[in-house]
Design brief:
With 287 residues, the chain is an all-alpha fold. Among the domains are: 139 residues; 52 residues. Helix content is 84%, strand content 0%. Helix 2 runs antiparallel to helix 5 and helix 3 packs antiparallel against helix 4.
């Protein structure tokens, strides 16, 4: 459109064009808004479910970490206590070996004798079962003797109990750690899923809000321009009419005088006064 054509556009035509544009937007936006709202409704539960699963795994991991830390701390304390008891027993005269070499040799001798009898004496499966049971009894009797010998030493039973409890706690800590590693992959999957669904929800929410604002703006624009068309354009053309009649434009009227303008005005005023003072007074006719 050329400048001449643009200047030839009447206010009525311009207002009707704007009104038509607003009406067209008001017709198109609702369909898009419904689509975005449906998208938002579908995205919200997916993002919420992914977040709940991720947070649930995070809670499990936090509990396992706490369990692992507590077990490790208790185990360290028990190991320290057992070490102190061992040092104390050694300082008091040493710790007796609850399973000395002679006892082991005596057990081995009895077991070898039973094995020899089992190999040399013919018998059925019941006889073999009898020899095997006797071997188990010998081993159990030896273990009971070793345990009794250990518990008879003052402080040794407490030391052994501390070591056993500490080892059990370390096993508990290891199980908690292994469970954390198993949950790590699952947690990564649900976190990635949540991030993707949440990003989709945010986009749908942003589009829905922008379309709702655009629809509201279009509806208000329709009311505004329809009112202008119905009431006429006199109020809008008041500035143009004033300029056409020779008045100052709104830009000139609203412009504040600058320092340069003020200085020039004062200079002109001083020059005017100076000229009026230097002008000679008219003389009368000579007599």
């Amino acid at each position: 459109m050329t400048p001449e054509e643009l200047l030839g556009v009447t206010p009525a035509l311009l207002a009707k064009s704007i009104l038509h544009r607003r009406e067209r937007l008001a017709e198109v936006i609702p369909e898009q808004l419904d689509a975005r709202q449906d998208e938002l409704v579908a995205a919200e539960p997916l993002a919420r479910a992914a977040k709940e699963k991720r947070d649930g795994i995070n809670a499990k991991v936090a509990n396992l970490k706490r369990e692992r830390s507590e077990a490790q701390n208790e185990a360290r304390a028990l190991f320290k206590r057992a070490g102190e008891l061992r040092d104390k027993l050694q300082a008091a005269g040493g710790i007796k070996d609850p399973n000395p070499k002679w006892a082991k040799e005596k057990l081995d001798e009895k077991l070898q004798k039973l094995e020899q009898e089992l190999e040399t004496n013919a018998g059925n499966h019941k006889t073999e079962q009898k020899y095997i049971q006797e071997m188990k009894n010998l081993i159990r009797q030896h273990d009971d003797w070793v345990e009794k010998r250990s518990s008879s030493q003052e402080g040794l039973s407490e030391m052994d109990a501390s070591f056993k409890q500490a080892k059990a706690l370390l096993e508990k800590a290891q199980k908690a750690h292994d469970a954390i590693l198993e949950l790590a992959t699952e947690n990564e999957y649900f976190h990635t899923s949540y991030v993707e669904h949440e990003a989709h929800r945010r986009r749908a929410d942003g589009r829905t809000k922008r379309l709702a604002e655009a629809l509201d703006s279009s509806q208000r624009g329709i009311e505004h321009w329809q009112k202008i068309i119905d009431d006429g354009f006199d109020r809008l053309l008041s500035n143009a009419t004033r300029v056409k009649e020779g008045g100052a434009s709104s830009t000139v009227r609203n412009r504040k005088p600058s320092k340069t303008d003020a200085t020039q005005t004062k200079g002109r005023q001083r020059k005017s006064k100076s000229k009026s003072k230097s002008k000679p007074e008219p003389r009368g006719e000579e007599e």
